[in-house]
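Q: What structure does this chain adopt?
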Amino acid sequence: MKKVKIFGVEILNIDNSECENILRDFLRGDSLKKIYTPNTEIVMAAKRDEELKKLVNSGDLVLADGIGLIYASKLRKKPLKERVTGFDTSIKLLELADEMGLNLYFLGGKEGVAKDAASAVNEKYKNLKVAGFHNGYFKSKLDGEKSSTEEEIIKEINSKAIDIVFVGFGFPRQEKWIDAWKKDINAKVIIGNGGVLDILSGRANRAPDIFIKLGLEWLYRLIKNPSRIKRQIDLPKFLLAVMRDKNSVE
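A:
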């Protein structure tokens, strides 16, 4: 499948249906597959930092989470088929896990978030099992030496025959953590999915459908949390950079 490069970040050009087929293949496989879901903020960070760019591009499945990426690709006549969000991909993984009777592990969020998300998911989906969870508040050097907490987390993942791991630390910590310990984790899929656990736990809500359809989830999150304004400034900066640089999208 073809990729669209946006400031060097390689986005797989697929729609949600094609994404589901890839996820099925991953879950039938016997090696760990990494899923990263960049938005405009992440692409801008990768544009400024070559190491972050390499990290994101090392994913086995790199998806267009942000609506700005869709706009940019169309603006430069290299259109991405569809926005494939980290949230929708996470929900699809839950549906497939339920269909296939798989085990999951939730890692991230404040104390109690992963636990509540696990309880809610186990209640809703009867044929899967969230077999373990841990909050995201622990120190991590990511220098090749695990903390005692990381030793315990990875040991639990491997001892419980986990198929899918949700890592919700936020960018770039979740991607760096996945990359650091990918060889130690015996699972089939690991996804960095930010605030998905907060939504699954009931502590946060996704934007209403009208905001999603209009590509205005960023505005809904800004209204709910005005402190995000510094992060959201990257969106107009991103679009201006795309318009200025004719080679921004390949």
